[in-house]
Amino acid sequence: MGHVPESRKARSAEAARFEVFLRSRKLKLTGERLAVLASIFQRESHFDAETLHAHLRTAGGNISRATVYRTLDLLVQSGLVRKNSLGASHANYEAAQGDEHHDHLICLNCSQVVEFYRPDIENLQEQICAAHGFKLIHHSLQIFGLCPGCTGQADEGTIRNRVAQLHT
Amino acid sequence: MGHVPESRKARSAEAARFEVFLRSRKLKLTGERLAVLASIFQRESHFDAETLHAHLRTAGGNISRATVYRTLDLLVQSGLVRKNSLGASHANYEAAQGDEHHDHLICLNCSQVVEFYRPDIENLQEQICAAHGFKLIHHSLQIFGLCPGCTGQADEGTIRNRVAQLHT
DNA sequence: TTGGCTGCAAAGGCTTTGCACGCTC
DNA sequence: GAGCGTGCAAAGCCTTTGCAGCCAA
After folding, report:
1. How confident is the model over B81-105, as pLDDT tens digits?
2. Which of A45, A59, A74, B160 has the highest Cβ tally under 10 A?
């Protein structure tokens, strides 16, 4: 009992979820898609498409940038990956560990990203939607500032410019 | 006393503020810059660089896209204009009327934008920063949903895709 | 007169797409 | 075998930049 056929390799929980998602859309579970998924869940934190592509190349694969973008799109739609900007004009991504939602605190000097979750903010957003008759579907809250290590270290002019350039 | 030279045309409060800003940086107050500023403050609400450029062209001017971008950058730095994304991958702008700050509620179906201000959210952000030792400099809160008119009207699949494509 | 400013066109950075071949189901 | 998936290269979109002439101060 509990015997697992040797031919069926053990897959991570993420891979299983991705497979279910793909099947539900009659899409295929390819080696490339699994490689992208594995690379994302192997390393923590935030990354962009270019970095992910580089990691996949380094790992020996021959996955194209196009496939990286196409797979990221599917992963976002499946809910396994979240897409953020963190103030940049290009997209940033992060593995959606579990179902917990969080927002981001970003240091304008060293780019460090801190995640936080405040139920009271979630509640306020519901109140705001209700006040305007909106049905809440999604939100994005990003706080920019200076982290403990950078407070007092950063050049004021540089920071001011960086704020002006934020894409939020 | 109090005499104003006739040769000096009356200027809007915004133009005066822009002039002060430019002088402080030893930059020049050109006709193009004034035209961009006037066009922005003539019409309300949110706009992107392309729309602004089109309006300026229609108005008879011959202002280049490059000048539009360069001037928007100066206006953002001066604080007269705010830059937002509203979920789009390109920049959106809005005239900063007075000093009041506000956040945005955006309809995923009809793209309507509602501005709101909640002091309690501002306070929470200060608390979050304090909790992590950050110095708060800037923030961005965007809530996406369906406006009263679009609730129940929108196709669920379309909305889901739109959420996945948001650049936030 | 002297920088800064402008339009133009080209270049840049990120992302998407057309196409012919390849692989999963 | 059918149809989705892939790599490649080209195209797209928005934005920035180099340059020669122009203009505000």
Report:
1. 999 999 999 999 999 987 788 999 9
2. A74
Q: Are A154 and A111 in contact (CB under 8 A)?
A: no
Question: What is the per-residue pLDDT across B95-146, written as a single tens digit (0 to 9) for each?
Answer: 998 778 899 999 999 999 999 999 999 999 999 999 999 999 999 999 999 9
**Which tokens belong to B29?**
């107050």
pTM, two decimals, is: 0.90
With vertex at residue A82, the alpha carbon angle to CA A76 and CA A86, rounded to the nearest 5 degrees, is: 135
Domains and CATH numbers, chain B: 1-97 (1.10.10.10), 101-168 (3.30.1490.190)
Determine the nucleotide nearest to B32 by Cα–C1' distance.
C6
How many CB pairs (< 8 A) connect A and B?
Answer: 150
Give the separation between CA B30 and CA B23, rounded to whole angstroms: 12
DSSP for B128-166 reads: HHHHHTPEEEEEEEEEEEE-TTTTTTS-HHHHHHHHHH-
* Residue numbers in B near A160 (CB within 8 A): 77
